[in-house]
Design goal:
Layout (H helix, E strand, L loop, with lengths): L1 H11 L20 E8 L2 E8 L4 H13 L9 E3 L3 E4 L5 H6 L18 E4 L12 E4 L15 E5 L1 H4 L18 H7 L1 H7 L6 E7 L1
Antiparallel strand pairs: 1-2, 1-8, 2-7, 3-4, 4-6, 5-6, 5-7
């Protein structure tokens, strides 16, 4: 039980730096189903989002992708057999704009099976924002802790499984990236201290 609790606490950790910024835009209502194509440093993968799985999460993801939020973002936490996590913007000013734009929790309808995509969150309710993770294994133990999948990788899972993982767990639990620094410094921090991280070249809503 203690090990499971530790894994959960590490998974949901989000940096908590604060910066003054303009308010984030309101989320746009997403289509009932849509596909996002990710062009990355390792190749291409697609995520199909199903709004009925988690409507609030699907709308936020749609809004973020359309705005270019994920373009240039690093896959900063890659844990083989567990998750690939991303969602800190390349530009710290963009991250700051979304800092306080938390979502209400969606009910968990789908399980965190391999290939599903889910928001990271803090330990408190209603703390989802921009960070998401792709499940690399059957992580159904997360279902009871408010982690509601809103889509799944439908093409290119082999690409997702190739993202650079040698930096390991993030600080303070490991030697990987410190999320607070990443949020305040953006890609300058990643390029300087974690240059081998893979990244999103562009994320696009497919017509």
């Amino acid at each position: 039980m203690r090990l499971t609790a530790l894994i959960l606490s590490v998974l949901v950790f989000c940096g908590c730096s604060k910066q003054a910024s303009e308010a984030a835009p309101a989320d746009e209502r997403a289509p009932e189903s849509y596909k996002v194509r990710f062009d990355t440093s390792k190749g291409q993968f697609d995520v199909t989002v199903t709004r009925s799985w988690a409507p609030l999460g699907a709308d936020r993801f749609y809004t973020l992708v359309k705005s270019g939020f994920y373009d240039g973002a690093r896959f900063f936490r890659v844990m083989p057999g567990f998750v690939v996590q991303f969602g800190i913007a390349a530009d710290p000013a963009v991250t700051a704009k979304w800092r306080d734009a938390n979502l209400q929790d969606d009910p968990v309808i789908q399980s965190n099976r391999p290939g599903t995509i889910t928001y990271a969150a803090e330990n408190n309710p209603n703390t989802r924002s921009t960070q998401v993770f792709i499940n690399l294994a059957d992580n159904k133990r997360l279902d009871a802790s408010r982690f509601a999948p809103f889509g799944a990788v439908t093409q290119g899972m082999d690409v997702v499984q190739q993202f650079y993982s040698e930096y390991g767990e993030g600080a303070p639990m490991g030697n990987g990236p410190d999320q607070s620094r990443a949020e305040s410094e953006g890609n300058a921090y990643f390029v300087r201290e974690f240059p081998k991280l893979d990244y999103i070249e562009k994320a696009t809503i497919e017509k």
